[in-house]
Amino acid sequence: MLKRKSRACLRFLLTATLVIGIRAQDRSSLPAFEVAAIKPHNPADPGGGFGFQHGRLTISNTWLKILVMTVYALVAAKNGPKLQRSAPDAQYSMRMGPEGMSATKMSIHTLADTLAGYVSRSVIDKTGLQGDFDFKFDWSPQDPNSPSIFTALQEQLGLKLESEKGPVEFLVIDHAEKPSEN
After folding, report:
1. In this structure, are 112 and 154 located in the same domain?
2. CB neighbour list of residue 118: distance below 8 Å, 6 or more residues apart
């Protein structure tokens, strides 16, 4: 287990893959929250990194903790990727809907981050593909006749999610409280 202070924590707050660990006697007593803004680091506070504030909850003493856990590796499927390279002048766009996903000028790394929110695990890009791509794949979690996201990725994009062990970064929050009225 590695413990370190890092401003990189904010990056994980902005993704759907964030898992928050809270050290507390009774985790059920802590409120649910969203974090909307970072507050400046107080160098006089030896306990901790930096903090975040949103409405009624201040979070401080945050660290990244790296654990080896089960993740998905995004790799090329047996017959190779079925992706179209983006035109150099293309503009980034992404659409997620009840029937799948379409994207223009998206990197595979960004696709991996997006997929993590749907498969409830970290997804690590191991395709080796560089650059941006345009693609569309259809699947619907609500439709029992629709292919699973795993099948849709493999058949429509030529990519595969393989389960393996890998490092996962957790944002650990040592302290959370309601801010003062000031």
Report:
1. yes
2. 141, 149
Residue 160 lies in a domain: yes
Q: How far is CA 16 from the centre of its chain?
A: 4
Instruction: Calculate the alpha carbon distances from 104 to 108, 113, 161 in Å.
Output: 11, 16, 21
Dihedral pair phi/psi, residue 39, rounded to 5°: -105, 155
Domain total of the chain: 2
Range of the domain at 9: 2-67+167-177
Residues 56, 86 within the same domain: no
- CA distance linking residue 100 with residue 12, whole number of Å: 24
Most confident of 20-34, 120-134, 167-181: 120-134
Give the predicted TM-score (pTM) of the model: 0.63
Strand, coil or helix: 2: strand
102 and 60 within one domain: no
- Has residue 111 got a pLDDT over 50? yes
For Cα atoms 182, 21, 35, give the angle at the middle one, nearest 5 degrees.
Answer: 35
